[in-house]
Amino acid sequence: MSHIGYRLDGSVAVISLNRPDKHNAQDESLLRDLDARWRQAAEDDAVKVVVLRADGKHFSSGHDLKTPAPGYFREGKTVLESAYRWETEHYLGYSRRWRDVPKPSIAAVQGACVAGALNLIWPCDLIVAADNAYFSDPVVQFGVGGVEYHAHTWELGARRAKEMLFTARKFTADEAFAAGMVNRVVPLDELDTRTMQLAHEIAEMDPWALATAKRAVNQTLDVMGQQAALQSAFDIHWHGHANALLRTGYPLLTPDPLPSKARTKEADA
């Protein structure tokens, strides 16, 4: 069963994470289906704007740490080459592809947006946050220096990015807005309505002009080195995997469950 919803609201495609009982934690199936829906929206000429949202209390608690991806293992043992390929495709690769979909995209975020959830929202062009939203990347506690789509510096600025990583603390929606990571903060009960209003406002614009405006901004970031920085940080991330495996048995590199002493509660129950 897919945990991704998809519907059209006029010329706006609405993609929904629909695994609320697991706080929309991302396993391989969810990510694969999410990528398929992004592709569907990108290829549909009737779609002018894409909205990414989530059902339930939280946007996403990040990677599903209880179900490590099968691509990491061969005969019960971690295989570095296949694990690196799997992450390159499903984490860094998907995020890069979503970022470059030639249509404006908006992420609507409520509650927890933790670690791997940042891989989903940062590729979007705009972010609307509910007033109860919070953002964090606590994986330094596992011995890893940050999530795979390492856009922290671009999204928050260098000093706030370091604070997020060094302390693992939660950034509120207002703090994220002040840093320029979030475009708007709205009451929780207005999140969907206000996001869709913004989406339809944008959809009134000429689609070719929207696509070229997006490309111009993204290419400016690329000239400034964003893509090279993301790849470099992703490779550094893999040094973190080795450290995490030695320190805690971090689940993405072992088929055994994460030891309870190393587990961080990613979202409030």
TrEMBL record:
UniProt source species: Streptomyces chlorus
Name under which the protein is recorded: Enoyl-CoA hydratase
Classification via NCBIfam families: PRK08290.1 (NF006140)
Similarity-based family: Belongs to the enoyl-CoA hydratase/isomerase family.
Stored Gene3D superfamilies: 2-enoyl-CoA Hydratase, Chain A, domain 1
Domain of life: Bacteria
Organismal lineage: Bacteria, Bacillati, Actinomycetota, Actinomycetes, Kitasatosporales
